[in-house]
Write a structure and sequence with these properties.
Length: 241
């Protein structure tokens, strides 16, 4: 009986291979076309994307009980490629600093517009799954951390701006030490809204016209919102002990 679902789950993984390869090629082309792109920008971005895609393919058969990969997961995969591109740029911020700031800000706006489309598409196709929800959350976390790193590299704020992206990972590590923190949280519109605000704020920091001290103030506001949201969740978890 335990072997029965295998063909269905394997079909979803096979269906994911084509979009993984296609989106990887599009990412490579986009990074190579960036103004003032450096020779290592494309390999760095592809390495991060390949790692994310490999982890997703590994988890897919366990948490996605459907025969198809689905458009929703495909959209999240495209957002993962965007996050991987920004992770590469965070390691080489001079690429953005030399004239690609507006391009980068526009790319963040596009990724933000796609956020929410993946969940809508999955529900419309009847392919919503724990995999899709977790994949979406991890892509958001990677994008926020990459954008925070890029903002720091561009001198838009001090090293404290990295806390915007690191808070989520600190929360996960805390859950390993104190199991009550690792308990599932209820769905929250507040959490989703703040995630959108922090991505928008970090994307705004990439615009060349936004410089310190204004850029630092924007980053500080985003950090305050994120920290407050985590404090609310931590308080709720503590009350459920």
């Amino acid at each position: 009986m335990t072997d029965a679902p295998v063909p269905v789950l394997s079909g979803a993984r096979r269906g994911a291979l084509a979009p993984v390869l296609l989106i990887g090629l599009l990412l490579a082309a986009a990074l190579a076309a960036l103004p003032f792109a450096m020779g290592s920008t494309t390999p760095l971005g592809l390495a991060v994307y390949a790692t994310a895609a490999a982890v997703a393919l590994d988890r897919l058969p366990i948490h996605h009980p459907h025969a198809r990969f689905g458009l929703g997961n495909g959209v999240t995969l495209a957002r993962a490629a965007g996050a991987a591109g920004f992770a590469a740029l965070a390691l080489e911020p001079e690429v953005v600093g030399r004239g690609a700031g507006w391009w980068a800000a526009a790319a963040v706006a596009a990724l933000l517009a796609l956020d929410g489309v993946d969940g809508w598409a999955a529900r419309r196709e009847g392919l919503a799954s724990p995999f899709g929800a977790r994949f979406d959350m991890e892509v958001d976390a990677l994008l926020v951390l990459a954008l925070a790193g890029l903002a720091f590299g561009l001198g838009k704020a001090g090293p404290w701006v990295l806390a915007i992206g690191l808070l989520r990972y600190a929360f996960v590590l805390a859950g390993m030490a104190w199991p009550f923190i690792a308990r599932p949280l209820p769905r929250s519109r507040r959490r989703s809204a703040i995630c959108g605000v922090e991505v928008a704020a970090l994307g705004l920091l990439l615009a060349p016209v936004l410089v310190p001290p204004v850029s630092a103030a924007v980053a500080a506001g985003a950090l305050a919102l994120v920290a407050g949201s985590f404090a609310v969740d931590l308080g709720w978890l503590a009350r459920q002990r």
